[in-house]
UniProtKB/TrEMBL annotation:
Keywords, in A-Z order: Apoptosis, Cell membrane, Cell projection, Cytoplasm, Fatty acid metabolism, Hydrolase, Lipid metabolism, Membrane, Transit peptide
Domain Thioesterase positions: 85-153
UniProt EC number: 3.1.2.2
Organism lineage string: Bacteria, Bacillati, Actinomycetota, Actinomycetes, Streptosporangiales
Domain of life (superkingdom): Bacteria
Protein name as annotated: Acyl-coenzyme A thioesterase THEM4
Enzyme class: hydrolase
């Protein structure tokens, strides 16, 4: 199995996903601190990332949060395969998108991903349980700067994927207007 070169740069963060110096500290909105088991009921259960019965979906379970840091888990199933026996990179990026988005929504607004950067650190075998963590690193206007990682083998296992993102706050009409 390939292991990462310890000398390599492991942060996916570019200038575009780094909060500017005058960014505000993230503040979680108490009203947004829904019981994680109820979020699907609020947003609908058809989400590829977290819908519990979506065929071939990630079925990410949100396991808790502390401040804007949120935690989740999912298992890589054969339908998530890219190269033989290994998770597709897009699947891992989608998982990071979901957990980063979870932390953004804890801020109290409605957020969509504007930019998502990923760093694939080590291959993830099919069958792996992936432990996801995400946090907000700053808020600037409508932009929430996010970062997180996915670990395999346990919550303290080796990092397999890192991600950084900018989420943009949008009005409710973003989801309801006809296109
Ligand atoms: C508990 C719930 C959990 C939910 C988890 C969900 C996880 C999944 C999340 C997703 O996958 S969401 C789906 C993927 N994303 C989209 O479909 C978004 C598509 N893009 C858009 O709809 C628009 O481009 C967008 C709303 C993001 C921005 O358009 P706007 O016209 O509203 O904003 P505008 O262009 O005026 O930019 C506003 C600010 O954001 C910045 N911005 C916009 N796009 C950006 C970008 N891509 N990267 C960095 N910054 C960006 C922009 O520079 C600007 O910064 P300033 O205020 O400082 O000037």
């Amino acid at each position: 199995m390939t292991v990462p070169n310890p000398a390599r740069r492991t942060s996916p963060r570019s200038d575009l996903t780094t909060p500017p110096p005058d960014a505000a500290e993230p503040r979680v909105d108490p009203k947004a601190e829904l019981d994680f088991s109820e979020i699907g009921d609020v947003l609908g259960n058809a989400c590829f990332g977290c819908g519990p019965e979506v065929p071939h979906g990630l079925r990410i379970t949100r396991t808790g949060h502390e401040g804007s840091t949120s935690y989740g888990e999912f298992t890589v199933i054969p339908e998530h395969q890219g190269a033989p026996g290994l998770a597709h990179g897009g699947i891992l990026a989608a998982a990071m998108d979901e957990i980063l988005g979870t932390s953004a929504w804890l801020l109290g607004g409605r957020y969509v991903t504007g930019r998502l950067e990923t760093d694939f650190v080590r291959p993830v075998p099919v069958g792996s349980r992936v432990h996801l963590t995400a946090r907000c690193t700053g808020v600037h206007g409508r932009k929430a700067y996010m970062e997180g990682e996915g670990r395999i083998g346990g919550p303290d296992g080796p990092v397999a994927v890192r991600a950084a993102a900018v989420f943009i706050e949008v009005p409710l009409e973003h989801f309801t207007e006809e296109r």
